[in-house]
Amino acid sequence: MVFLANSSLPAWAVVDLYCERTGTEFNVNAEPLNVWTNVWAVVLGVGFVIFALRKTQDGRRRNDISLAGGVLYMTVGIGSFIWHMLGYNVLLFMDLLFPCFFGAWFIFHWLWRVLRLRRVWPRLLLCCIVLAALAGLFALGDYMPFYQYTSVHWLWYVGLYPLAVLHYCKARFRRWAGFVALGLTTCALLFYALDKAMEKEPSLECWASGAHFLWHIFSYTGFFFLLLMLPPEDDEEDLTACYSCLWPTAFSKREAREASSTKG
Questions:
Q1: In a domain? residue 22
Q2: Could you list the residue ranges that cross the membrane (predicted)?
Q3: DSSP tag of 56
Q4: Cβ–Cβ < 8 Å for 188, 219
Q5: Distance between CA atoms of 228 and 48, rounded to whole angstroms?
Q6: Which one, of 80, 77, 95, lies nearest residue 40 by Cα?
Q7: Does residue 179 sit within a domain?
Q8: 0.70 cut: is pTM over it?
Q9: Are the beta carbons of 62 and 232 closer than 8 angstroms?
Q10: Structural domain that includes position 198
């Protein structure tokens, strides 16, 4: 299997990829900082869900799309928590899959909410291309010298540059948020690469705590600002624009119920 943390080891072997390591087996105390800093994603996700349920100043409320984003954001931390706690070779996907899904979800809705690209299929196609690119780069990682220090995270980092500029030029809501997310991701990637360098290079001595936990804190905070980049939503317009062509039957039934309730 190519999607293993270490392709030379069995799928259920315990692997050690980070500086922080306090035990011979993986559990919540084997990498305490790497494990428990993932709770930060859950805290921020819960905060965003509470924020999304509040009405905006002009009386609008974010709909289920935003709530789904907050929940999906929390799964990023939960997947990473499981990976760092158990450390099985095959469980690396828990640390990569959920961030990819969150990134695809964000791109899909940002194209509509900010760039006003209404058609669903082009957005879905772009998200699939991004996910395929990430999977391909992960599979070819052994052939990329810099990959051993940054993994596939560099692709998301590079993609944030044009996204932040476009958001500043096109958005009318929190235009600065893209640059904040980019700055936080820059710091996060530096700490990620530092931890990898200390773990791989014999000339460098690993810190007892490592630096990977700082990657968690800065990257999760950067992801949170991506959520804040999406403006408040008009429920009907957004839901119809995003999903009506995928599930037209559900929307026709809903519209029929609304029409009958109005008449009543």
A1: no
A2: 35-53, 65-86, 92-112, 124-146, 152-169, 176-193, 213-230
A3: -
A4: yes
A5: 8
A6: 77
A7: yes
A8: yes
A9: yes
A10: 32-255
Report how far residue 167's alpha carbon sits from residue 162's, in angstroms, rounded to the nearest whole number. Answer: 8
The verdict on residue 16 lying in a domain is no
Identity of the residue numbered 139: A
- C-alpha span between 164 and 229 (Å, rounded): 10
Amino acid at 110: W
Tokens 């997947």 sit at which residue? 79
Return the structure tokens found at 202: 């014999």
Q: Which of 40, 20, 42 is nearest to 31 (CA)?
A: 20
Q: Is residue 154 part of a domain?
A: yes
Q: How many domains does the chain have?
A: 1
Tell me the CA distances in angstroms from 178 to 92, 146, 216, one per residue in order: 28, 25, 19
- Which regions of the chain does DSSP assign to beta strands (E)? none
Specify the length of the chain in residues: 264
Residue type for position 228: L
**Along the 264 residues of the chain, how does pLDDT read in single tens digits?**
445 555 666 666 777 777 776 655 666 677 888 889 999 999 999 988 887 776 555 555 555 667 788 888 999 999 999 888 887 777 877 888 888 888 888 888 888 888 888 788 888 888 888 777 776 666 665 556 666 677 767 777 778 888 999 999 988 888 999 999 999 999 998 998 888 888 777 666 776 778 899 999 999 999 999 988 887 665 444 445 455 444 444 444 445 455 455 555
